[in-house]
Amino acid sequence: MKKGESAVEYYASQGTMAEPGKYVALYDGLPDSIPDLVATVQGVLMHAGHAWRYGVTLSKDQDPMKDSPRRVEEMLRRIAQIDGRPIATTRTPGKRLPVVCRHFALLTCSVLRHKGYSARVRAGFATYFPSGVNENHWICEYWNTGEKRWVQVDPQLDGTIRSGLKITFDPLDLPKGKFLTGGQAWMLCRQGKADPNHFGLNPKLAGIHMVKGLAVHDLLTLNKFELLPWEGTGKDPSDEVLDRLAELTELPEQHLQELRGLYAHHPEFHMPPDWQP
């Protein structure tokens, strides 16, 4: 990050995970508008957990939990293996790459930056899935220059999923409270305003460890380091550090330098030295 750089400037450039690398040619012909760019991502990815909604049966080898691409460059490589055309060409559901929500958010972030938008990934919890809890989820935010605000987008929610889940709000501009960042969830639980057992993947896989994990993930995403959702550093920050993290991630554009410093100076946010992305 350059000295004096604003949040809008910082989030306009690609990070390690979002860089398309040698597969950037697959971005040829990308549309310009937010709705069309999100539709482009939806046309090459499919959430593995919802494959059945598209009439697709996945093989064991297609389980993203077992072999999931971390970087956009690897996502694009696998997309090209299935269909080598630029991603502006929509694939049929059976020809889309099976992934999870994090991949939708990261690829959306990458294509938005490629087209000149300022964008970032956020990690937290969605309140609109029928899992019985506020569900672990990742979305994308972009800077709306005309309205001078960050707009939250859930690129996973295409027409098929919206219809199946009876979602009526606009996924291209999430209403306030539909998505809670990891830091917001942490503070709600810390202040006794929410039950940590209501945050997780399902009622049996929920609890404060989920909240802590997503709070850390959100700090990492705001530093352009978007780990896989099930990855972690193996080191737990103190409650006091998480409190500060939550304060800073609430308004990252106002605290970007501090966010960068918190990430840089706390070893509990760093992967082991021998880890490779």
Quickly list its features.
single chain, 277 residues, alpha/beta, six-stranded mixed β-sheet, two-stranded parallel ribbon, 9 helices, 8 strands, 33% helix, 14% strand
How far the N terminus sits from the C terminus, by CA atoms, comes to 20 Å
Low-confidence stretches: none
Portion of residues within helices? 25-40%
State the shape. Answer: globular
Determine the structural class based on helices, strands and strand pairing. Answer: alpha/beta
Q: Average pLDDT value?
A: 95
Instruction: Enumerate how many helices there are, as a single number.
Output: 9
Q: How large a portion of the residues is in β-strands, by DSSP E?
A: 5-15%
How many domains? The number is 1
* Global Rg: 18 Å
Order of helices and strands: HHEHEHEEEHEHEEHHH
Describe the structure.
This protein has one domain (about 15-265). Strand 7 (about 200) and strand 8 (about 205) form a beta hairpin. It is about 35% helix and about 15% strand. It has about 280 residues and is an alpha/beta fold. Helix 6 (about 180-190) packs antiparallel against helix 7 and helix 7 packs across helix 8 (about 240-250). The protein contains 9 helices and 8 strands.
List the helices and strands and how they pair.
Layout: H1 7-10, H2 34-42, E1 45-47, H3 72-82, E2 97-99, H4 101-114, E3 119-126, E4 134-144, E5 149-153, H5 159-165, E6 179-181, H6 182-190, E7 199-202, E8 205-206, H7 208-222, H8 239-250, H9 256-265
Parallel strand pairs: 1-2, 4-7
Antiparallel strand pairs: 3-4, 3-6, 4-5, 7-8
Helix pairs in contact: 2-4, 6-7, 6-8, 7-8
